Amino acid sequence: MILRFFALFERTDDYERPMTEFLNRYMRDGRVFDEAKIQVLCSLFERTVAAVSHSLGERPFRPERNLNAAVFDSVMVGLACRLLEKDQEPDAAAVDEAYRGLLGRKACRDAYVRSTSDTLVVKRRVSLATKAFANV
Prior knowledge:
By secondary structure, the protein is mainly alpha-helical. Helix content is 71%, strand content 0%. α1 crosses α2 (19-30), α3 packs across α5 and α5 (92-104) runs antiparallel to α7.
């Protein structure tokens, strides 16, 4: 799941199915990441997890009962993009409202329920989440 976050955060535009090969390519390229890049990515991941935990509680990414990987990757990437663009941490209530609004949209639901690794679906899902969290 963490690998999905990093790969989609950095390379959503390059995503092509199958997901496994996309992740393998990212891991292969990651062997040469310098220490500075690794530190930036780790910090961003930690800040994003903190924002999710603070805003969405202990059981996020579960539009139904189980953790949904498609919801995880899109919400995490969308929030990470927002964190990079603004210096201050997002308002927890605004994040929660944006999250619920996002999951309530038919376009989003379709993108996390069916054909979740399809190239266009992955890109659409990440784009919807990025837009949903842009102004929180």
